[in-house]
UniProtKB/TrEMBL annotation:
Domain Threonyl/alanyl tRNA synthetase SAD: 194-237
Source superkingdom: Bacteria
GO molecular function terms attached to this record: alanine-tRNA ligase activity; aminoacyl-tRNA deacylase activity; ATP binding; metal ion binding
An annotated GO BP: alanyl-tRNA aminoacylation
Protein name: Ser-tRNA(Ala) deacylase/ Gly-tRNA(Ala) deacylase
UniProt organism field: Caballeronia sordidicola (Burkholderia sordidicola)
Keywords, alphabetical: Metal-binding, Zinc
Gene3D superfamilies: 2.40.30.130, Threonyl-trna Synthetase, Chain A, domain 2
Cofactors named for this entry: Zn(2+)
SUPFAM superfamilies xrefs: ThrRS/AlaRS common domain (SSF55186), Translation proteins (SSF50447)
């Protein structure tokens, strides 16, 4: 089924957790709305979890959020248990994102932008969740120690640097792409706009994820390990403290 897709409310309202929406499609245990605050898995950031509440007060748990494989503007919410085929356009819901899961992901995601700025090498992989995060770099020699990485990151965090989100027109996409060293979190090309993330004076790149407004919100971090993954690859693992 061809749809107009799901309005990605999280792009402009990363700190909001509740929203109203209308069902536009459903199948088995998946449901799609005309708009959502649930972030769909992508760029190493896990898809959001939470709850939806129907007009009659019944609730369903959202266990996973992801984009449709072919229609990248359509966002599916996987519910705990099958949903009957819901009539589209009529069913209104309230959604609530699990902030206890999402906020640490926003903090770690922003911290990984800082890590990018610290290591001058292409990123080949990215993952985060449960207060941890890692980046893989195409890097034959690692010159910094775990403590040096943690100290540099904690110093940047303490500088309370603003993290700004700007929405660019799609015709500026190719210009934006030239700024990208790390193509692990590109927003979908067909979107109405391209989301640019700038950590003032530190890092700028198009990124589809959700981020905190100031580096200070990341809080203290530790560098847990630097792993050698093959001759050319170094994996750096960070953890939020608290
Ligand atoms: Zn990002």
């Amino acid at each position: 089924m061809k749809s107009n897709g799901t309005a990605a409310l999280f792009d402009e309202a990363a700190y909001e957790t509740t929203f109203e929406a209308t069902v536009i499609d459903s199948r088995q245990d998946l449901v799609a709305f005309d708009r959502t605050l649930f972030y769909p898995a992508g760029g190493g950031q896990p898809g959001d979890t939470g709850f939806i509440t129907y007009a009659d007060g019944s609730r369903a748990r959202v266990v996973e959020t992801r984009r449709d494989e072919t229609d990248r503007l359509l966002i599916w919410h996987r519910l705990d248990g099958d949903v009957e085929s819901l009539p589209t356009g009529k069913i209104a819901i309230n959604g609530a994102v699990d902030w206890g899961v999402r906020y640490p992901n926003m903090r770690m995601h922003t911290c990984l932008h800082l890590l990018c700025s610290l290591i001058d090498a292409p990123v080949t992989g990215c993952s985060m969740g449960q207060g941890k995060g890692r980046l893989d770099f195409d890097l034959p020699e690692m010159t910094m120690s775990k403590d040096e990485i943690a100290d540099s990151l904690n110093a940047m965090i303490a500088r309370q640097i603003n993290v700004e989100t700007r929405l660019m027109q799609p015709d500026q996409y190719d210009v934006a792409l030239e700024l990208v060293r790390n193509r692990y979190a590109l927003p979908p090309r067909s979107a109405q706009f391209v989301k640019m993330i700038e950590v003032r004076g530190v890092d700028i790149q198009p990124c589809g994820g959700t981020h905190v407004r100031s580096t200070l919100e990341i809080g203290k971090i530790v560098c847990e390990k630097i792993d050698k993954k093959g001759r050319q690859n170094r994996r750096i693992v960070l953890r939020l403290i608290d």
